[in-house]
Amino acid sequence: MTQQKKRISGRDGTEARDGSYAFVAPAARTRPHRPVAGEPQSLPAQAPDAGERSFAELLFLVMWPFWLFRDASRGDRLARAAAYRHNRAMRVHLPGYILRWTVGAGLAFGLMAAVESVAGLGEPSSLLLLLAVGLGIVFAGCLCVLLVTGYLYLYLSRNDDAG
Which end of the chain is more exposed for a tag (fewer CB within 10 A), N or C? Predict the structure, then answer.
């Protein structure tokens, strides 16, 4: 007596005429995945692909933290609440940006101090003084971005309501 063995392929298998089973891929999702509370968050779907961006665009996205966030002041109440929830989920990326801007501010300040000390050794060169002033402006800009990013992180960490 011969026994015919059938292959089991699970709930997505369909039986062909010859008695074998073929795998049928599940239908594509019609709705986007909504994260569940406690599920780890990843970067937003609009995160750029490194192969399609220029170096300047990648540098901008690596250094500028505000591209991650949505405007929570526009739209109806539900749209504003959804944008606020999105912003709260993206706040976990802000400490990395704060660290980058702190390093940038430290480099600008260090270079500014070095250029000023070199300019003060001999007769002052207008080029060295302009370079020191430019580095001072870069340092002030870094401090402004640090202040806004730090405030945004603290605000989104402390305020649970979308108002």
Answer: N
